[in-house]
Amino acid sequence: MSKTHYAILGITPWASEIDIRRAYRDLSKLYHPDTTQLSKDVAVENFQQINAAYAILSNAERRSQYDRLIQFSRFQYTSSNISDNVIDNATKSRSQVPKNLQTLDNDGLPSERPLSGGELFALLLISATLVACLVLVVLVAWLRGDPLFPQAIAP
Q1: Which residues lie below 8 Å from residue 53, measured CB to CB, with a gap of 6+?
Q2: Closest by alpha carbon to 45, among 26, 29, 58, 32?
Q3: How far apart are CA 149 and CA 129, in angstroms?
Q4: Which residues does 40 contact at the CB level (< 8 Å), separation at least 6?
Q5: pLDDT averaged over consecutive 10-residue blocks of the chain (155 residues)?
Q6: What is the model's pLDDT at position 115?
Q7: Would you state the pLDDT for residue 136?
């Protein structure tokens, strides 16, 4: 039997819309051909499967039709094969994570990472602007003839 769309996204059939969107976003980052270290053929194939699964599961009408097709009922669930496949595929996909992606801690938040070049450049611009403003204030005060220090501090 081929994998279900739920197994492709690594979620259970009871997943909410938010869980579906989160799984799609994470897997699309993982398998996008431009950002992964996997071979291009494998990345494109996985990315297409993820997009097809998300297209069906993100729409409520298509999802209900798909659930009827795979004979899934949210009220009575008799087959445990799908949930076993979901768990197996989820652990397999996590073990194949390329090295260029951040790992997640148990709390679901990204772990600490070094600042990127753009972030460092932004910090440099902010600090240079602050220093330039302070120099400008002192220069304007000096040109106007204002005392640089208050009378209480002046020697």
Answers
A1: 5, 6, 8, 9, 24
A2: 32
A3: 23
A4: 33
A5: 82 88 90 86 90 91 87 57 51 50 49 81 96 94 83 67
A6: 81
A7: 96
CA distance 52 to 46: 10
CA 91 – CA 82 distance, rounded (Å): 14
One-letter amino acid for residue 105 of the chain: D
Amino acid, res. 152: A
Please name the amino acid found at residue 108: G
The answer to whether 24 and 46 are in contact (CB under 8 A) is no
Q: Is 54 left (phi over 0), alpha (psi -120 to 50) or beta?
A: alpha
Q: Which two tokens stand for residue 123?
A: 């910090």
Q: At what angle do helices 40-57 and 60-69 cross, to 10 degrees?
A: 100
3-class DSSP string for the chain: CCCCHHHHHCCCCCCCHHHHHHHHHHHHHHHCCCCCCCCHHHHHHHHHHHHHHHHHHCCHHHHHHHHHHCCCCCCCCCCCHHHHHHHHHHHHHHHCCCCCCCCECCCCCECCCCCCHHHHHHHHHHHHHHHHHHHHHHHHHHHHCCCCCCCCCCC
